[in-house]
Design goal:
The complex is a heterodimer of chains A (about 450) and B (about 375). Chain A is built from 19 helices and no strands. Chain A is mainly α. Chain A has two domains: about 150 residues, no CATH class; about 230 residues, no CATH class. Chain B is of the alpha/beta class. Chain B has two domains: about 80 residues, no CATH class; about 270 residues, no CATH class. Helices cover about 35% and strands about 20% of the residues of chain B. A seven-stranded mixed β-sheet of chain B has the order 5-4-12-10-11-9-8. A three-stranded antiparallel β-sheet of chain B has the order 1-2-3, with no helix packed on it. In chain B, α6 runs parallel beside α8. In chain B, about 40% of the residues are buried. The chains are: A mainly alpha (about 450), B alpha/beta (about 375). Chains A and B meet through α1, α8, α16, α17 and α19 of A and α1, α4 and α5 of B.
Chain lengths: ~450, ~375
């Protein structure tokens, strides 16, 4: 179940929140129950894998924790790493199953961070299975991240303070996230299909505009989902870390990766890059390994490997060659530089077959393609306002604007609820609208 | 106070969404517009564990939303807020171009599919004797003849037809329907709301075929013209608009003035109250259809075809004693066996398809499988 489905908004969420707030003593049990139902609804079979994984990690966590700091902890850790990575590798990179169990990439990494942290003595192994299951399966972050660290919410698993302030801000955060996903990302996605969809005759401007829309689609989709997760977490009394901080205003690729999918980047930093030796020994090799793994994490296609290698190469280049030159450039130029490289990166990300990417790149530089055609003009014109909104919404301006309104008390206390209600209603309408399909009959 | 108000408002909105799903009757207009039944939810072991249960639930819940049709309309309005309309209200909806002037499918050439299509035809030629002549007629579509601004967003259908023709073996005669239609592109040769050509368009293609096959075609003045008004075709649904709806297509049909009878009849005119549809021609598509005519010349035409041929075949009737139509999308027998039933009589084997069919990856395969 995605957060942007009618089943979630109209059925699951109201039920879950009603039970959660009506039965304060059973909150953890309710949350576990609803989380498992949430997962089983989309994965009625692999929910067993999730439970098995939870049980294994819980047990190994205890064993590793009891031996932490001694050499005897090591075999258990190795076993835990293998047990976690094996299903991910089997499902993701072999033809074992036609589909990837929901969220396996995320919960595998959550489990790894847990057992490694226990091994390092940074956290104690959770002795209660239910406590661990709550962390492992909590629905806000279950299927699309962020990759929440156990250490960050350990205390909240036991006792959490539900404050009106936190619940209220969680509601607003969730509403904003839903709007980002349904109103912005999906609209951008329609423009992507229009410009880069199958059978489209490519043009230079069409290809670039298509990738621009794709960049926005990805950002608003993913960061919207993270917003919803963080918001839902807050409503339930948890505080998750930020996962996206305006990545498209970055002034270098290095900065971009500090702002994009932060929980993944910090996972690779803490559990791969630094253990490999970080910047103390063979740093270039370490960076390459980390970025190839990052690419692979995103999917089984060669293009993801290429995409990871692309960023690995760019980061190495920035670190060792461009650093000083970049710093001397004016900010505006550095932003242009970053955006151009990020767009090229998204093109690699978009085309899952190398032939498609090659055709795109030829078209993008005008080989065998015209500069523009009616399609580009139409795509641009019919999305002109959307494009302005997408650009503005990916900067800190809306947040600054909201702060100003709050400060000046425009409309008093009604502003925020009104704003949320409008976004929620518009999102609901858009979701219902997207289920309309007038072409069910056979086309001939 | 501020926080409480925000929380209360959220609770009210959530409750409203839930109520919309639970407390209101399902919206009948929904299924009328989408031409389907309500999505039902069957909870069986197979449904729940077979995969896709979440999609079933979503479809079910969506159908349960009260006033769904109004939400759908409102959602369409919301989408229009994304930007400005283009000149002529031109839009691209999926693979369809829509403008005030009408709609057209946008063609995407697939070189591999085109090569497969030619190869499939060649395989027929290789297995047939000299008593069988083989022709390939590929019909271009409306977009090819629209103003350049629009036709440029589509791959060239002329190039696509040439690509297929280049792959045909020597024993197959390509029929140049393209030039014949191009010469008359200012006439009513394509519908504006449907992806088919009109009977008039098919007539010009028929003349090109007569050229290739070496017979003298009848003139339009050998026919009487009938007309059915108020035709809104398949493409109209992609971008319903008042402008197009107010000037719908009409269907011209032609009946031979001479003494020609066929069984079954070539036209199936709608009864009173029935919708006007392209099915007028031959009554639609069949897996297999044999038409016997009063022309006792012993000649048989076997037509392997998509629905474009439905408009063309009536023109062929005065020249053949028997017309056998086979549709690769549904015919399950063997076309060669069919042809061999007629022994060594003179047979013309025609492949009549619109250019899109030659770029569909699976269409050549269907033709090949029914050989």
């Amino acid at each position: 179940m995605t957060f942007s489905s009618l089943a979630f908004i109209c059925v699951f969420l109201p039920c879950c929140l009603a039970v959660y707030f009506a039965l304060p003593r059973l909150r953890n049990a309710a949350l576990i129950g609803f989380s498992l139902a949430f997962y089983a609804y989309g994965e009625p079979v692999y929910v067993l894998l999730l439970l098995l994984s939870a049980a294994a990690n819980w047990l190994l966590g205890i064993i590793i924790g009891d031996r932490a700091g001694t050499p005897r902890a090591r075999p258990a850790l190795v076993l835990a790493v293998i047990l976690n990575l094996a299903p991910l590798a089997l499902f993701k990179y072999t033809a074992l199953s036609p589909h990837l169990p929901l969220g396996i990439s995320f919960y595998t990494f959550r489990a790894l961070s847990y057992v490694i942290d226990v091994y390092r003595g940074e956290v104690k192994g959770q002795r209660s299975f239910w406590g661990f299951l709550l962390y492992f399966s909590m629905f806000p972050q279950l299927i699309a991240g962020p990759i929440v660290r156990y250490a960050d919410i350990e205390a909240q698993l036991q006792t959490r303070k539900l404050t009106l302030r936190a619940v209220s801000s969680g509601i607003t955060r969730f509403s904003v996230g839903l709007g980002k996903k349904v109103l912005l990302a999906n609209a951008a996605g329609r423009a992507v299909t229009l410009l880069l969809g199958a059978g489209v005759k490519m043009t230079v401007l069409g290809n670039w505009l298509g990738v621009v829309f794709f960049a926005f689609q990805l950002y608003f989709d993913f960061s919207g989902y993270s917003d919803m997760a963080i918001g839902l977490g807050r409503i339930l009394g948890f505080e998750f870390k930020e996962n996206f901080v305006y990545p498209y205003i970055s002034r270098s690729i290095t900065e971009f990766w500090r702002r994009w999918h932060i929980s993944l980047g910090s996972f690779f930093r803490d559990y791969v890059y630094i253990p490999l030796g970080g910047n103390r020994r063979h740093q270039i090799l370490n960076l390459l390994i980390v970025w190839l793994l990052t690419g692979m994490w995103h999917g089984a296609g060669w293009n993801f490997l290429l995409w990871g290698a692309y960023y690995g190469a760019l980061l190495i280049l920035e670190k060792f060659v461009l650093k000083n030159a970049l710093e001397r450039l004016p900010s505006a130029l550095r932003r242009v530089y970053s955006c151009a490289l990020i767009l090229l990166g998204w093109a690699i990300f978009y085309f899952t077959d190398i032939a498609g990417l090659a055709a795109f790149l030829r078209g993008a530089v005008g080989i065998g393609a015209e500069l523009y055609d009616f399609r580009v003009g139409y795509a641009f014109l019919s999305n002109a306002f959307l494009l302005v909104i997408l650009v503005l919404a990916s900067t800190p301006l809306p947040a600054k604007f909201a702060a100003k309104i709050r400060e000046k008390r425009v409309l008093g206390a009604a502003t925020e609820p009104l704003f949320n209600a409008i976004i929620l209603a518009a999102s609901f309408t858009a979701i219902v609208g997207s289920t309309f399909n007038p072409f069910l009959y056979f086309r001939f | 106070m501020r926080y409480k108000l925000n929380i209360a408002a959220f609770a009210v909105v959530c409750a409203a969404f839930a109520l919309l799903v639970i407390a209101f009757p399902r919206d009948l207009r929904t299924i009328e517009r989408e031409n389907r039944n309500f999505n039902l939810l069957e909870i069986t072991v197979e449904n729940v564990f077979g995969g896709g249960f979440d999609r079933d639930v979503e479809a079910y819940v969506s159908d349960r939303v009260g006033y769904r049709a109004d939400f759908v309309t409102l959602a369409a309005r919301l989408r229009e807020l994304s930007g400005l309309p283009a000149a002529d209200h031109a839009k691209i909806v999926g693979s369809v171009l829509s403008a005030d002037d009408g709609l057209a499918e946008i063609f995407a050439f697939d070189g591999a599919a085109a090569a497969d299509y030619a190869a499939a035809l060649n395989a027929y030629r290789a297995e047939l004797g000299e008593n069988v002549r083989v022709f390939s007629l590929i019909a271009p579509t409306r977009i090819e003849f629209m103003e350049p601004k629009y036709s440029r967003i589509s791959d060239s259908e002329l190039d696509a037809i040439r690509a297929v023709n280049a792959g045909l073996s020597d024993g197959i005669t390509p029929v140049d329907a393209y030039s014949a239609l191009a010469e008359h592109s200012d006439e009513y040769i394509y519908f504006r709301t449907d992806h088919h050509w009109t009977a008039r368009g098919a007539y010009y293609a028929y003349r090109a075929f007569a050229d290739a096959a070496g017979f003298v075609p009848l003139g339009l003045d050998d026919y009487s013209v009938g007309r059915l008004d108020g035709f809104l075709g398949y493409l109209y649904n992609f971008a319903p608009s008042a402008a197009v709806a107010s000037s719908p297509d009409y269907i011209e049909y032609f009946t031979c003035n001479g003494a020609l009878t066929t069984s079954p009849e070539l036209l199936k005119l709608p009864a009173a109250g029935e919708k006007t549809e392209y099915r007028v021609f031959l009554g639609g598509d069949y897996d297999e259809l044999t038409i016997e005519t009063s022309v006792k010349n012993g000649k048989t035409a076997v037509v392997i075809k998509d629905s474009y041929a439905n408009c063309l075949v009536p023109w062929l009737a005065p020249h053949y004693e028997r017309l056998v139509l086979l549709d690769p999308r549904s015919f399950e027998g063997s076309a060669l066996e069919k042809i061999r039933e007629y022994g060594d009589a003179d047979i013309d084997l025609l492949f009549v398809n619109y250019v899109f069919s030659t770029s569909f990856a699976d269409f050549a395969q269907l033709i090949d499988e029914m050989r």
